[in-house]
Design a protein that fits this description.
alpha/beta; 6-stranded parallel beta sheet; disordered N terminus; GroES-like_sf; NADP; ADH-like_N; Zinc-dependent alcohol dehydrogenase family protein
C-alpha cells in the first residue's frame, strides 16, 4: 500500500457520479439511480471509483424500514460493501494514495456513506486494502461475511478445533462464510436451512450435517448428531422467539451468538444455564484499527491458501440492475452473496 498523502489534481473540483438513492421506505422499486456531484475529498477523506458492490440483508432491511436505525429521507444512500480503486485523497490521508485497490469496511452510517454508486467518498478509516490478487467481484463479496463469521466465532466465541458449531440460516453470505471459518479452525459445522432444495449445496460447501428446519426439529437433530451432548457454539442469524429454543441445543456452559434478526419479533433468551449469550455486531471487528488489521490478515491469508472462497450466488452487470439484485435477495432462493459489477 502506498503511504503518500499527495492529493491528485481531481481534488480541485467536484466529481460527477451515479448513486443509488431512495426517497421513501419500501420494496426494491424505491431504489433509483441518480446523477450526483461529489465534493473533493476533505481532510481524512478518500474518493473511490467503485468496480463492484455486494448486497447484505441489512441493506434490504434498511431500505424497507426494518433495520435497527432508520434512513434519513429523502435522498438516503445504501450499501456497506464495495471493491474499487482510490481516485483522490484529502489532506492528512496517509494510508492510501490514488491507484490503490481498496474495500469499504462497512463501519459507517448507510444513509450517509452507502456505497451503492460508481464513485463514493469515504473516511480513510472506512477503507481497507484489497486482498492481493482478488478480482473486484471476489473482493466485494469477502469483507462483511468473513469479518462477521471470524469475529463472532473466533474472537467472541473462542472456537477451537473439535468444537461442534450450529449455523442457522446457513445459505446466507455470512452462513456460507461461517462454514468455511469453522472448517479452517478444525471445528465441525452443523447447519440449518429452511427447505430441502439447499441441502445438497450446503454439503458441497463443507457442512458436516444439514438440518432442514421446515421438516426436522433443529434441537432434536442437533442433539442426535452430537451423541446427545449438543453443540459448543450456536451462530444464529434468525433471532426471535426461536432463539430461546436454541439454548437446548448447546452443551452446558456453551455459547450462543446472535448476529441477525431475520425474525423481526423480539429475541427471547434461553433459560438453560450456565451458558453465554453474545449479541454480535460487525463493529466489534471493523470499528477499530487493530480489529480491521486482524480481520484483513485473516481474510487475505485464507484467500491465499484457499481455505476461504467466497460463495457468489449471482453477478448482475451494471448499477441499473440494483433493483433486480434486491428482488433476488428477497426471494431467499440464492446461496451466498449477490454482487453487482459496476464497471
Amino acid at each position: 500500500m502506498t503511504t503518500s498523502s499527495t492529493n491528485s489534481p481531481s481534488n480541485a473540483s467536484s466529481t460527477p457520479a451515479r448513486a443509488v438513492l431512495f426517497h421513501e421506505i419500501g420494496g426494491p422499486d424505491v431504489l433509483t439511480v441518480e446523477e450526483v456531484e461529489l465534493p473533493a475529498p476533505g481532510p481524512g477523506e478518500v474518493l473511490v471509483r467503485v468496480e463492484a458492490l455486494a448486497l447484505n440483508r441489512a441493506e434490504a432491511l434498511f431500505r424497507s424500514g426494518g433495520y435497527f436505525y432508520q434512513p434519513t429521507l429523502p435522498g438516503s444512500r445504501n450499501g456497506y460493501e464495495a471493491a474499487g480503486e482510490v481516485e483522490a485523497v484529502g489532506e492528512g490521508v496517509t494510508g492510501f494514495a490514488p491507484g490503490d485497490p481498496v474495500l469499504s469496511a462497512g463501519n459507517f452510517d448507510l444513509g450517509v456513506h452507502g456505497v451503492y454508486g460508481d464513485r463514493v467518498l469515504l473516511p480513510e478509516t472506512s477503507l481497507v486494502a484489497r486482498p492481493a490478487g482478488a478480482d473486484p467481484v471476489t473482493a466485494a463479496a469477502v469483507w462483511l461475511t468473513y469479518t462477521t463469521a471470524y469475529g463472532a466465532l473466533v474472537e467472541r466465541a473462542g472456537m477451537r478445533p473439535g468444537d461442534h458449531v450450529l449455523i442457522t440460516g446457513a445459505s446466507s453470505g455470512a452462513g456460507t462464510a461461517a462454514i468455511q471459518v469453522a472448517r479452517r479452525a478444525g471445528a465441525v459445522p452443523i447447519v440449518t436451512t429452511r427447505t430441502e432444495a439447499k441441502r445438497r449445496r450446503l454439503y458441497d460447501l463443507g457442512a458436516e450435517h444439514v438440518i432442514v428446519s421446515d421438516d426436522e426439529d433443529v434441537v432434536k437433530e442437533t442433539r442426535r448428531l452430537t451423541g446427545g451432548q449438543g453443540v459448543d457454539i450456536v451462530f444464529d442469524a434468525i433471532g426471535g422467539a426461536g432463539f430461546a429454543a436454541l439454548g437446548e441445543a448447546v452443551v452446558p456452559d456453551g455459547t450462543l451468538v446472535s448476529y441477525g434478526w431475520l425474525d423481526q419479533q423480539p429475541i427471547l433468551l434461553p433459560r438453560r444455564w450456565p451458558l453465554t449469550v453474545h449479541g454480535y455486531a460487525d463493529f466489534v471487528v471493523t470499528g477499530n484499527p487493530e480489529g480491521r488489521r486482524r480481520a484483513a490478515h485473516y481474510i487475505g491469508s485464507g484467500l491465499a491458501d484457499g481455505t476461504l472462497r467466497p460463495v457468489v450466488a449471482e453477478v448482475f452487470d451494471g448499477l441499473d440492475r440494483i433493483r433486480d439484485a434486491h428482488r433476488l435477495m428477497e426471494t431467499n432462493t440464492h446461496t451466498g452473496k449477490i454482487v453487482v459489477r459496476v464497471e
